[in-house]
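Q: What structure does this chain adopt?
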Amino acid sequence: MTDVAEPLTSKRDRLLDILRACGRVAVAYSGGVDSAVVAKAAQLACGDKAVAITAVSASLASGEREAAEELATRIGIRHRIIATDEFANADYLKNAPDRCYFCKTELYSQLERLLSEPHADLPEFDVVVNGANLDDRGDYRPGMQAAREHAVRSPLIEAGFTKTDVRELAAHWDLPVWDKPATPCLSSRIAYGVAVTPERVERVDKAEEFLRKEFGLREFRVRHEAGDLARIEVPIGELPRLISDPARKAISQKLHSLGFKYVSLDLDGFRSGSMNAVVPLQTRILSQANH
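A:
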C-alpha cells in the first residue's frame, strides 16, 4: 500500500464521512478507477450497508463485466449485475450529442426502481452514488444532468477529488485499476448522428479487442465514423509501428472482415473525448454552467 499525504488524507476522510452519513449506499459501479474508489470507500464506510451495482448491455466492452466482478470481490463489497435497455430508446439510438443523458437516465431509473421495490437478492439502500470527479465537470457530460434529475450523489466531487487524486487513492488502497485507462461505453465510439446499433458497437468491440491482443495497445480508440469508416486513435509514438507492414495489412484485413469499408489511422493520435470536438461550443458551455 502506497503512502498518502495531505491534502489527500483530508479528502479521503471527507469521502468516508460523506458515505457514512448516506446510510445504505448503492454505487453505480463500472469497474473503472473512479467507481472502484467509491466502491472501496463505501465498503470501508458502510460495510454490509453498501452494494455495488454494474449495468450490462450491448454497449459494455468485452471483459469489463468479468473484470468488475473480480474487482468487487477484491474490494469486499456486495456486487450485483442488472441489465439496462437503453437500446430500446429511440432518442438513444439516434445518437445526438446528448446520447449519454438517455443512457444514464435508463441506469438511474432502474436503480430507483430497485430502491423503491427491493429485490430478494439485493439489500435495501437509501441513496445512489456515482464516480464523477471534479475533472468531469470540465467536459461535455450530459449524463451529469441525468444524475441531478435522479438525486444521484457524486461523493468524489463533494469531497473535492480530481482525477489525479482518485488514481493516487486507488494506488494507496492497492486497487489494480489505479492506472487503468478510461473505458467509456462502446457507444461513445460511434460518431454523433450515426445511429447506435448493437451491430455497430459489436464491430467496434471486436476491432478494439483485436488491437489490444495483437499489438498490446492500452490507451486507444476505434471510432466508428459515417460511411462505415474506422478511425483508429493511438498514441503518437505507436503510429510508425502500426502503419508499417505487416501490421498495417493485418489491421486493414481484420477491420474489413468486421464490416468496416474504410480503415484509417488518425495522425493527431489518441484524444480522450475527441468525438465532442463536433459538439457546438454553446452546448458545452451551457452543460458546464449547469454542473
